[in-house]
Automatic annotation (TrEMBL):
Source organism of this protein record: Collimonas rhizosphaerae
Alphabetically ordered keywords of this record: Membrane, Transmembrane, Transmembrane helix
TM ranges: 7-25, 56-77, 89-110
Protein name, as recorded: TrbC/VIRB2 family protein
Length: 112
C-alpha cells in the first residue's frame, strides 16, 4: 500500500515539474518564434482587463492541476503490479513527452 501511494505521489510531483519545465520550454519557443505565440484575433490577453468567465477558470484549473492528476493516475495504474525500474522510467518519460506534445498542440497550434 505504501509503495502504491509513493509511486502515485511521485508521478503527481513529476506532473507538476513537467508543467514547470514546459513553461520554460514554451518561453524559449516564444522567443525564437514570436509569430507562433501571437494570440488569436479578438482574444483578450490581459488578466486585469478581461472579464473572468467560467471557461477561463476551468481552463486555468485544468492547465495547472491536470498534469499532476493525470500523472498521478498513471503512477497509480502502474503500481498495481511489480514493475522494473526501467519500465517505470520509460512510462515517466513517455508521459512527459505526451504532456508536452499535447500542450504544444493545444496552446500554440490550436490556440485553446
Amino acid at each position: 500500500m505504501i509503495k502504491r501511494a509513493t509511486l502515485t505521489i511521485s508521478f503527481a510531483i513529476l506532473g507538476f515539474f513537467s508543467l514547470v519545465a514546459w513553461g520554460a520550454i514554451d518561453s524559449i519557443i516564444c522567443s525564437m518564434y514570436p509569430s507562433l505565440c501571437a494570440p488569436r484575433a479578438g482574444a483578450c490577453t490581459e488578466i486585469d482587463h478581461c472579464p473572468t468567465s467560467l471557461h477561463m477558470i476551468v481552463g486555468l484549473v485544468l492547465f495547472v492541476f491536470g498534469p499532476p492528476i493525470a500523472f498521478g493516475i498513471v503512477g497509480f495504474v502502474l503500481s498495481k503490479k511489480e514493475r522494473a525500474i526501467n519500465r517505470l522510467l520509460a512510462a515517466a518519460v513517455i508521459a512527459v513527452l505526451v504532456h508536452w506534445l499535447l500542450t504544444f498542440v493545444g496552446v500554440r497550434l490550436l490556440k485553446f
